[in-house]
Amino acid sequence: MIRLAEPKDANQAMDLVMIVLEDMELNVFNQLPKTKIKELLIQGFIEKPTYRYGFQNAIIKEINNEVVGVAFGYPDSLEETIDQDFIDLLAENDLPESYKLFDEEETFEDEWYLDTLVTSPNHRGKGIAKELLEALPLIAKEKNCASIGLNVDQINHHAKKLYLNNGFEKVGEMLIANHQYDHLQKQVS
């Protein structure tokens, strides 16, 4: 079943998010152990619910009490402040702001931005990502956004195909963490 995320999902959801973050080769992985990064993400998920990876910005696909997929997103209007809670969390843990995960702006105007979509490696190829994608238009409409936007790494052909097959179209390109991304959108109006 697909449902809104809850604080109890923190550990399993962050296991999945860590897959994506490690693939992005973010600088923070050269500065902190993976266990500390995951610990901070779990803390943020629970204690900072409006953070980029806070539980209020997530939907979960659950099978037999296991989180097998997660999607995080937010309206473009929150772009400037979406990571402030994580910066505060770093300070609370006596860590410098330079350990934040992202610097680049990722959204286009008037879109609900799908920041992260990831499924468990053990459950890939079973339509879970598609189910999560199909749940997003309702969320975007509730947030008064005319489209859903996302960035997909240009070398991730499998993910790009999934998005294109689900009604997304390329509308631009951007550089995030030294990787070239295509920006895709799907209208929801």
UniProtKB/TrEMBL annotation:
Residues forming the N-acetyltransferase domain are 1-189
InterPro entries reported in the protein's UniProt record: Acyl_CoA_acyltransferase, GNAT_dom, YpeA/RimI_acetyltransf
Keyword vocabulary terms for this entry = Acyltransferase, Transferase
Q: Which SUPFAM superfamilies match?
A: Acyl-CoA N-acyltransferases (Nat)
Q: Name one GO molecular function term.
A: acyltransferase activity, transferring groups other than amino-acyl groups
Among its keywords, does the record have Disulfide bond? Answer: no
Q: Determine if Transferase is one of this entry's keywords.
A: yes
Q: Which Gene3D superfamilies match?
A: 3.40.630.30
Q: Which Pfam families match?
A: Acetyltransf_1
Please list the coiled coil stretches: none
Q: Which PANTHER family match?
A: ACETYLTRANSFERASE, N-ACETYLTRANSFERASE YODP
Q: List the protein's name.
A: GNAT family N-acetyltransferase
Originating species? Vagococcus fluvialis
